[in-house]
Amino acid sequence: MRFRYRGKRYYISTGLADTPNNRKLAELKASEIKKDILCERLDLTLEKYQPQSALSTITPITPIKKKPQPQLDQLWDRYSEFKKPQISPSTYAKDFTKHRNHIAKLPTRSLDEVSAIRDYLIANLTPDAAKRYLTQFKACCNWAMEEELIDTNPFAAIVAKTLRKERQE
């Protein structure tokens, strides 16, 4: 196909064999070009008017590799170092060390298994102490989210559920 637009000559090859059906397809394409010229929306790259291949290649979707999620003990160590200059040495030595020791005793340190962590704390500590630990772990994970170490805080929902259950009892 050949045509002129604004004094410039354009060529498009259909890439189709000369058959009655393919001529009809070429006529349709030509009328589309005419319509676009009249509406002043001609694609000057001519890509819009190029024939689409009957077979196209498919680019496989590569799975997004999830970055390995840090464990609770790793986050706690980094959080503790972050908080150390902000708190008194006695608070750091007493509370942060105590939390670190409890993390070491947990059945899991995986952030994917916070229900197991909650259940362990509730079974082995007073309700108030379990709530304090969960609240501190939630604060640690909030900090880790701000530092972009993790994407979501799994303790946010756990602490809220635990507090609701405690109030209902």
Q: Rg from C-alpha positions? A: 33 Å
Helicity range: 55-70%
* SS summary, helix count: 6
Overall average residue pLDDT: 84
Bulk shape = rod-shaped
Q: Which secondary-structure class do the elements indicate?
A: mainly alpha
Main sheet makeup: 2 strands, antiparallel
Low-confidence stretches: none
Strand order of the largest sheet: 1-2
N- and C-termini, Cα separation: 81 Å
Number of domains: 2
Order of helices and strands: EEHHHHHH
Approximately how much beta-strand content do the residues carry? under 5%
**Number of DSSP strand runs:** 2
In short:
The chain is mainly alpha-helical and about 170 residues long.
Please provide a written account of the structure:
This protein has about 170 residues and is mainly alpha-helical. It folds into 2 domains: about 1-50, no CATH class; about 70-169. The chain has 6 helices and 2 strands, in the order ββαααααα. It has a two-stranded antiparallel ribbon. Helix 2 packs antiparallel against helix 3 (about 90-105) and helix 4 (about 115-125) runs antiparallel to helix 5. It is rod-shaped. The termini are far apart. The mean pLDDT is about 85.
